[in-house]
Structures are given as C-alpha cells and as structure tokens.
Amino acid sequence: MNNSPRAVLLGPLLKSVSRSFYLTLRILPAGMRDPIGLAYLLARAADTIADTSLISPQRRLELLLSLRAQVNGAADDGALARIAGEVAGQQAQPDERALLESLSAALAILPQLDVQDQAAVRDIVTTLSTGMEFDLRTFPDETSGEIVALQEFSELDRYTYLVAGCVGEFWTKMTYAHKPGTLKAAPETMLALGVRFGKALQMTNVLRDCARDLRIGRCYLPEVMLARHGLTPHALLQPESSARARPVLFELLRTSLALFQDAVAYTLAIPPGAVRLRLACLWPIMIGLDTLVLLARNDAWLDPASISKVRRNDVYRIIAASLPMVASNGMLRAWTARRIRAVEAALSAATRP
Fold first, then answer.
1. Which residues cross the membrane (predicted)?
2. Which of 39, 275, 20 is nearest to 168 (CA)?
3. CA–CA gap between residue 285 and residue 300 (Å, rounded)
4. Which end of the chain has fewer CB atoms < 10 Å from its terminal CB, N or C?
C-alpha cells in the first residue's frame, strides 16, 4: 500500500471530500486523474474557506485570496498556517478539517506535475476562486437577514462560467493533453461545448439549491426576471412563492435544457472506444437531466424541505444502465433524447391550463 502524502491526498482524502464526484474521477483515464484530482482538492479547500460562515466575509475573502496567491506561487510562509488555524477548527466534518490542514502537502504535489498540467491547475483554481470571490463580494453576511439578487441574466451566465463552465474548459484541455488524438473536433469547438456542459451542471445546481441559498441571503435568480412577474427576492421566502415564481423556473429550465443538449453533443464527440471519458461525461448529464425533471414537477421548489435531489439508488441505476450503452452512439442518443423529452413533457404538463 502506498502511504505517501500524494497517494493519501489523491486517494482516501480525495474520496472522502469529493463524494459523488469521486465516481467520475475514478473512471477517468489514469493520466488525467492526478491533475484533475489535485485541482479538485485545491478548489474544495478554497470553497470551504469561502463557505465558513463563522468567519466574517471580509476575513474569508482575505484567506481565499491568500490561498489563490499560494497556488500561483506567492511566497508567504504563514499563509497556510493561518488558513489551518482560522478555518480548519471551524469545520464540523473531520475530512474538511484534514484537507485544510494538508494544504502544504497538496501544494507540494503541484510542481510534481508536468509544466502544462501545472499551468492548467493554477488557471482552473484561479478561475474557480474568482467565482467564490464574486459570492463574497456580492452577497451579504449569511446571518444578516438581507437578500441580494443578481441583476441581469448576463451576471448569472458569467457566474456559471466562473464556477463550472471553466471546469468543462479545463476538462477538455486535460483530454487534449493526456489523450491526444481522442477528440477529433477542432479544439475551439470542443472548448465551447465544454463550457456549456459545465454551465448546464451549474444552472441545475442553482435551481435545485435556490431555496437554501435564499435563506443565506443569496438570490441567483436575476432581479429583472423576477420583476417581470411582480416578484422581489424577499417575496421568494413566502409559502406561495413556488407557484408565483414558476415562470422564472421554467424559463431557466429551458435555458438549462439547451445547455444539456450541447453537453450531449460533447459526449458524442468522444469516440465510442474512449469508454472512460464517455462515462465520466454521461453520468453527470443523466443525473442533471433527472434533476430538471424533478424541478419541473416540484410544486414547492422554493421550500427548503422539498429539494429536488436525485436519490442515491437512482444514481446507481444510471450507472448500471450506462454500461451497456456507452459505446453506442445510437443508444446514447436515444437514452438522452428520452430524458430530454421527459423534461419537456414535465414543463408542458406544468404550464397546461
């Protein structure tokens, strides 16, 4: 058994903090796992800093920026100790605490990667942390009782790029670097599809988590969209808000569905023989589409007690169903088309007089 710090960080610790994403990581081709796994660990640490509400938003921002600087090679011997000292002890989950206390070891892995991977990991962590910075600068303290909304859809679109669209971009770069010749389409085509793939997943997260986000002062539903239906961010906390805000939900579900169609196109652009890469893309697509169906059918989607979450057994069902189909373009097209039609049918049923 390899008990080196690298093996522990990119093995047991990564598994414990990445939850369902670990399934995707493990199915990746070997050469892609370490840079993507390391990027995940560093981004997860940054996210934990940004989300630790027992620390003031301003201090979280300072610590987040200091971690970003460390990732990008800044010399500050005390930065990681400050993060461990101030943030790790606030974590209820021991795995999150262990990650924050292991940042020095995680950063030591970075120069062990090849130069291209080092640059890609730094870029993705920088971009993701910029999305976290946006949250901390835009929204109020979680305990303030205030709610701030994004103003325009363009802000939401930019946000989904910063926290997820960029991951599709990174993933695509890793594929070109580690599996040369696998992707036949032009890089600019695949990079654009990869961005839309990531945005699809984040739009789904935004809609699924809207009820909880509202209660910590964050409204990702653009204010101009709410205003068209006579709504304000605070009004979304009212019991009847789920029904009143459904037109906003449906508009964003249709936007998400278009993004998922490009995610399917991305997956089908991967050769049938690249089974691991296809599965790594297919699973989040199918889970995401199932989530959209649940959202479209959820009359209480803004109730935090009624979150539209795909059950663990359904995730296992998706994994099992994918295995005999993954190498067939025809079967994948049919399967994804059925789920897309299910979303469309749920939207049609919900809007029928």
1. none
2. 39
3. 24
4. C
Domains of the chain as residue ranges with CATH: 1-119 (no CATH), 139-353 (1.10.600.10)
Alpha helices in 54-114 (DSSP H): 57-71, 79-87, 94-101, 103-109
Per-residue pLDDT of the chain (353 residues; tens, 9 = 90+): 567 889 999 999 999 998 778 888 888 888 899 999 999 999 999 999 999 999 999 999 999 999 999 999 987 778 999 999 999 989 988 999 999 999 999 999 999 999 999 999 999 999 999 999 999 999 999 999 999 999 999 999 999 999 999 999 999 999 999 999 999 899 999 999 999 999 999 999 999 999 999 999 999 999 999 999 999 999 999 989 999 999 999 999 999 999 999 999 999 999 999 999 999 999 999 999 999 999 999 999 999 999 999 999 999 999 999 999 999 999 999 999 999 999 999 999 877 76
Measured CA to CA, the distance from residue 154 to residue 137 in angstroms comes to: 17
Residues whose CB is less than 8 angstroms from the CB of residue 212 and which lie 6 or more positions away in sequence, other chains included: 304, 307
Burial 94-123 (b: 16+ CB within 10 A, else e): ebbbbbbbbbebbbebbeeeeeebbebbbb
Tell me the C-alpha distance between 126 and 138, whole Å.
18
How many whole angstroms separate alpha carbon 6 and alpha carbon 339?
40
Could you tell me the maximum CA-CA distance found in the chain, to the nearest angstrom?
64
- DSSP H/E element including 188: helix 187-208
Q: Following DSSP, what letter does each residue of 290-327 receive, concatenated?
A: HHHHHHHH-TTTT-TTS-----HHHHHHHHHHHTTTTT
Would you tell me how many other CB atoms lie within 10 Å of the CB of residue 343? 24
